[in-house]
Amino acid sequence: GVLMRRVGLPDDAFADPDARLSVDQFKRLMREGKALSGEPALALHFGASISFEELTIVGLICHAAETMVEAFEQMNRYGRLVIEVEGVSDGERFKIVRRDGAIWIEDTRSNPDEFPELTESTLGRFIVTTNRIFSDPPMYEAAEVTYPAPAHADAYEELLGVPVTFGAARNAMRVHEVFLTQRIAPRRKYVFAPLTKQADSLMAELETASTVKGKVEAV
Questions:
Q1: Following CA atoms 23, 168, 174, 87 in sequence, which dihedral angle do they give, to the nearest 10 degrees?
Q2: What angle do CA 120, 86, 143 make, to 5 degrees?
Q3: Residue 179 DSSP SS3
Q4: What's the chain's Rg over C-alpha atoms?
């Protein structure tokens, strides 16, 4: 469609579910989409409305995990399959920390304010989809972002349903204590094993491609 042509992608760019876009292409898609739709909160809507398992095999793995913490660990383990940005390739992007008597999930990627739309879509994906399933008590209770309040700041609490602090020291989401013990479902062994095997294969391909790319750039 119009959006794909603006970004320079063919209409069948997403025909292969394992096909990858560069971060720059994703940025252009998001920002051109905002311009075409006239919706400044598009990234928030995107994160809040799209199912994680529709985006990546990592979403399927997380939904096949036994507990919330295990799903979190698998998400970090295969994080590069979701998106490659600074702070992901070099280690775990998300960390569970205790701060001020509360439990927080911190997004540790580098230079987050260069692409705040990624923070917005992450908030929508984590908070809205999880609180839709686990609402008593709500799993996610609040959020902090490092950038100043944008013109569409009102859309944050409206869409996320939790208080949001702008201009904070970190990008983070406060979770209820039950997060550490919450069970999702009995472990789906016959689903989990082949999914992780496929994800490991994709990770190996990604590592090989990265190594070759690095050698070529060095030459």
A1: 30
A2: 30
A3: helix
A4: 18
